Amino acid sequence: MQIQEILIIKNSQENYGISTEDINQISRVPLLMDLPLRPYGTRGLCGVGGNIVSIVDVNLLLDLPEVDLKAQNSRLLSLNGDLSSNALLVSEVYNTVDIEEANIEYIDNANDPIIAIYKYKDYLVQIISLETLISNISKVEIKSKEVHSGKVKLFDTKEENSTKFLIFAMSNERFALNIDYLREIILSDVNYTDIAGSSKDLLGLITLREELIAVIDLRSYYGFNSDKNEKNRILITSCGDETIGLLVDDIIDIKSFPDRDIEYMRDSFEDNKISGVIHDNNSLISFFNKEVLEEIFSKNSRYIDSKEKNKIKAEDSSLTALEVIVFKLADKEYAFNVEFVAEIIDIVDSTKVAYSDDSVDGVINIRGQIVTIVSLFKKLSIETKINEDSKIIVCEINDSKIGFIVDSISDIMDIKIDELRTHDDELFSNVLHLDGGKRLILSMDIQKIVSN
Description:
By secondary structure, this protein is mainly beta. About 10% of the residues lie in helices and about 50% in strands. This is Protein containing CheW-like domain.
């Protein structure tokens, strides 16, 4: 089933969507007629368009607090077709939205009323199947009674606390993430900017609405095979003011579990990679929450930009921060601060130096001055290839001249403050955010390269 347009409804906790094909009209909540022994999820009866319809409280069927009938934003949605004998009671109507296929993730679970997740602006909308939701109206809620000495004692059934999780797959195993730490879900078919010297779990950096985000292959982090297919997704997670992307195999569901089914086992798992397990019918789901996320953030802290780090005063955003020379190595762009560049020359043969560091290719003579050639290829673990466009960038550092062989020179440009992101690494000092984030360039720290 392909959804073309949804109506977004809100409550204090979540955002939900309903296909507009199912909705006839939206009106204020009328006076309801109470229904004795009514099924759980219904609030009574009322007249809509000359017909008597059953009023279904969407919140109750989603295990949320019932809709406040007297609230100013509460609305009644009358329905079309086979559902027209019902009307939906909702806390608030937000907006109608045309569906963009790239932003919707369908969930294949016939028994779950949540059939898809849609990314709208900066939040997630859970799309509801009304047919499945309303079919859940099956049991009558009656207070239990117990007789003592001829007197009837009533017991109220208390609402059970629960926690909502996103359930996803990795290598045919189910995992869950506390939904509080999920910001959004995006497709995995994105361009990564590689980071030299990073762990095998770190895929690289991506740009999401001008925000620079490091992406971890969660499958590799947990020791699973990293198979690439169209179902792969990136979970954009936030903890405090820091954000990171987690690549997983597939999205399964969003589901609430009662706290009695959630078992914390922090001290029982090696490497602090699991917070505990969820007892889901006859199976177990491994889950993680804040503590495990903080461990992932900690291990990759040098690649993660917090909101605090990226604060830039609006009045200074157009000022030039530095001038760089952009060059290529193995078809990827890198940059040097022009301040350290003395000259650029054509490639020449170098003379090997005995007992020198592996990263030193040799020395050359430029107008009577000895210049040491340091291999960026070896520093970045890239195969060395010299071509007709290769150049040597000669830099002056601490009164010494050092040359770096590159594949080609791309550009010399001014970088504005709002195009600069700090990146603390063994070889790099900044990430250049160009063309609205579509072009990411790692700026090398020449002094770090030489000192290493």
